[in-house]
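Note to self: the last two entries modelled the partners one at a time, which told us nothing about the interface. This time every component goes in together.
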Amino acid sequence: MTQTDERPVVTVDVVIFTLRQDDLLVLLVRRGQPPFEGLWALPGGFVHADETLEAAALRELQEETGVRDVYLEQLYTFGDPGRDPRGRMISVAYFALVPGAEIELHSGGNARDARWWSVYALPELAFDHGRIVNYALTRLRYKLEYTAVGFQLLPDEFTLSELQRAYEVILGEKLDKRNFRSKLRKAQVVEPVHRYRESKGRPAQLYRFRPDAVAETKARRLFP
Amino acid sequence: MTQTDERPVVTVDVVIFTLRQDDLLVLLVRRGQPPFEGLWALPGGFVHADETLEAAALRELQEETGVRDVYLEQLYTFGDPGRDPRGRMISVAYFALVPGAEIELHSGGNARDARWWSVYALPELAFDHGRIVNYALTRLRYKLEYTAVGFQLLPDEFTLSELQRAYEVILGEKLDKRNFRSKLRKAQVVEPVHRYRESKGRPAQLYRFRPDAVAETKARRLFP
DNA sequence: ACAAAAGTGTTGAGAGTACACCCATGC
DNA sequence: GCATGGGTGTACTCTCAACACTTTTGT
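The predicted structure of the combined assembly is written out below.
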């Protein structure tokens, strides 16, 4: 009940993932002021007095991308002293998955740049944001293994090849087409919609995610 | 860069688990002041200006139990406005696992009560601490399934029956002895130490955790 | 001898993994 | 007719889950 004056500043930072052209992208904004002026950083800002942490993260997300109704999950809270040279800053990090459709970026009130970067070719990041992005990527890959969270990165309708490519891009490895499809069938997480996507070659059946599908797989237990 | 005056207060709260007599226990302290005077709450307190969040959690843990070198993991950050009637409070929750040995509790400077409670028979808790304990229990059960974290709750040497009972208490279900042991053998996470525990019936071989053992099992992927 | 807890294997079912060819369309 | 991507099944291995009796000690 002491130290009324040593209150740290609390912010939210959001790692926003999307897919585009067989690549996994993260949204970064270029800082217009010191410290780290000119470097790229995660979108984020202060938590308002009357909003929940999640609401603050959603607000940041919407200010940058305009999207609503996206997958958003609290990631971790970073609060080492010295992570911001201006003073004690505690950042509650979230990660968000937005569908791969073309999102037009809102450049924000203070006219800063915002653009997508491949997670596999990031620039130098301000603060400890590089560490935050790495942690978010680890968590995304991990969740992908036992939940159906990957669908959050795809549009409402998609082909099985698109879905498989999404998984391959995120996991960074090749998957077998027949095994992928047979597992999908068994899990009953997608259903065909009676339309086709035409491109080169044979047209592909379009599918959608079944919202009533069980979204979690049990982990294999270390002990029975 | 505005609202210098609206800074929330940041605290850490620690859910400290231990095992005793075939029960899973949580450490709670009785509040001596309003709000929620007389109710039980998680041990916790302010984050000092120069310490990391984890250091603050370790400090609280040590003040209450005297233990060091325990398993500690950040759980989640709770920050809804209104979770504390005194004002905006943001709590970074941690959970800790301490071995089941007899820990003598330090009653703390302000002479408040501290005692262990069964997670299966908790009293009414102050603030949103009931929710935090539930979340910690979910996480503990979950981690138990794919890591070797359960050993953190046992003394250095233990019998296989004790280990199995620990798992049963935490998971809230019976396990098959032969399957449990054969999976342990395959995972190579324990090794016998050449001593026995004598009690009623046949003496039991004592084991210890192998520190070089791989502590994680892969989750079964939803997709191949 | 008996009570109490420790210790020990096998079998059937389901899931994971590796692997190669035909199909429908546009040009 | 050929290039392009879409679509399909089988065999082997490994893990999971169910299940009951013998061993060692103290009294």
